[in-house]
Amino acid sequence: MDRLERVVIVANRTPAVKSAGGLASGLLDALKKERSLWFGWSGELREDPSNTLQQFSQGKLTVAAIPLSPEAHNRYYNGFANGVLWPAFHHRLDLMCFTEDDYTGYLEVNQHMAEQLRPLLNDNDIIWVHDYHLLPFAAMCRGLGIQQRLGFFLHIPFPVPSVAQAIPRIDELLDAMCSYDLLGFQTEDDRQAFVALCRERRPEIPIPQTGVYPIGVDPHALRREAEAKPVVELWPDAGKIQGIISVDRLDYTKGLPERFKAYGLLLEEHPELHGNVQLVQIAPPSRTDVPAYAELRHDLTALAGEILGKHGDLEWQPLVYVERQHDRAVLMPLYRQARVGLVTPLKDGMNLVAKEFVAAQDPDDPGVLVLSRFAGAACQLDGALLVNPHDPGEVADAMRYALTMSLEERRARHRRMWAVLCASDIDGWRRRFLVDLKAVRTQKVKTGEPLSA
Ligand code: ADQ
Questions:
Q1: Ligand 1: distance of its center to the CA of 330 in Å?
Q2: Strand, helix or coil at 329?
Q3: How many Å lie between the centroid of ligand 1 and the Cα of residue 349?
Q4: CA of 442 to the centre of ligand 1 (A)
Q5: How far apart are CA 75 and CA 104, in angstroms?
Q6: Judgement on whether residues 210 and 232 belong to the same structural domain of the protein
């Protein structure tokens, strides 16, 4: 028996050999320093995926990755995870597209992943599973006799009960989620929505321990990256053009068409801004196999053309719309050059771009964050201008206010948000979750009450 404790991360994707951004970058640095294992899909599709586990090491972290067949991946990932759970958990029931076959595929991949993980486990491992792709993973593990502690963190919002009830097979999914020992959410609202749904629909099933763990960033490292010499200088004409920046995955939850409409309205209502302001939107396409994403891309291109045609002239482009992916080394100095960070998702678990924008700012001359009140980050970043992304007038007013805000107010708002970033950083997020997961078995309380109130 191996007596040393080891953290095992299970996520849809394993980090690539060289990886940046998202969940991977936040956790990776810490995991490389302690004995740990990261298990998930390699990103590779193979007609016959049996017996093809690949393993490699990054520091003390071992990465174990399996391929999937194109058919299994399509039903599990495109079909149920991104065709049902993603839209429904973001309150877009109109985009939900359920088939029995996709649901079966989702369960089969979860079962397959649990079977592949089992021989890699040691007795003293603690297993931390991530996100909506793996809601039933713990139930599969328990069915295989895996006894180790199993914690789960949901990166996206949990829907309110009136919406969640419309998800086909929701009761089975809730039962399976209750096989975890600890369930972590981004916000208290998400946690309460889950507990309320369980109490309403599955009163006989004991709810495991739950907690709120808002994911953070590494503010000091991000600030250092932002201070580096910019790879691109977007607004070099000091002060003449004020930059507004938005960076997202191209996703219907991120509120891009609504944002473009609000920006169009700002330009209409404030002709004095013409020639003096520019919105840069970076939005690489994602999940291109899911039909709703192709439609969104089409609509957005049309809206961008409309703004450019209506307001632009030969000397000034009001909008720069870029689909190409850029890494953090490019983005962080760009955030620092912008006067406004415009982050207006219609619904978002946390939204790390909002936190990265704040971290990148020069504290002596910071930019202003305009943030949707429906992003998890809005619960923490009280120095942002909070807006309803569905109301173009409100968003346009906030942009206008941000562009004219006094230096003193900008500094004060930034100071408050910087303090929040430091007090709840990515390392604290990881440590708090793991401390709670280690403690949970000994407590044996199964009430659904918050572990860390
Ligand atoms: P995402 O929906 O992918 O993640 P987000 O938090 O905005 O959303 O971004 C995650 C990471 O990807 C950030 O580090 C960000 O910088 C990077 N990223 C986003 N767009 C990018 C772009 N165009 N180019 C380069 N990098 C980009 C899910 C949930 C979120 C939650 C995160 C983490 O949907 O609500 O905040 O997980 O828990």
A1: 16
A2: helix
A3: 10
A4: 35
A5: 8
A6: no
Q: Indicate whether 163 and 284 sit together in one domain.
A: no
Domain range holding 259?
A: 219-423
Helices and strands, number each (H, E), in the chain: 16, 14
**Does 186 lie in the same domain as 264?**
no
Tokens 């690539």 locate to 16
Residue 274 one-letter amino acid: H
Global pTM value: 0.95
Give phi and psi for 287, each to the nearest 5.
45, 50
Whether residue 95 is found in the same domain as residue 241: no
193 φ, ψ (degrees, to nearest 5)? -65, -40
Domain total of the chain: 2
Per-residue pLDDT reduced to its tens digit, 362-390 = 999 999 999 999 999 999 999 999 999 99
How large is the average pLDDT for residues 223-234? 89
Catalytically active residues, by annotation: 155, 348
Residues with CB under 6 A from ligand 1: 21-23, 155-156, 215, 247-249, 282-284, 325-326, 348-353, 356
Contacts of residue 314, Cβ cutoff 8 Å, sequence gap at least 6:
none
Check whether 164 has a pLDDT greater than 50. Answer: yes
The answer to whether residue 235 is domain-embedded is: yes
Task: Out of 189, 256, 352, give the residue to mutate to test ligand 1, the one with the largest number of ligand atoms within 8 Å of its CB.
Answer: 352
Indicate which atom in ligand 1 lies nearest the CA of residue 376: 35
Strand partners, 280: 245, 320
**Alpha-carbon torsion, ordered 338, 277, 321, 252, to 10 deg:** 80
How distant, in Å, are the alpha carbons of 39, 90, 131, 268, 397 from that of 13? 8, 21, 11, 44, 40
Nearest CA, atom 16, ligand 1: 353
Residue 367 falls within a domain, yes or no? Answer: yes
**How large is the average pLDDT for residues 305-318?**
95
Do 300 and 185 belong together in one domain?
A: no
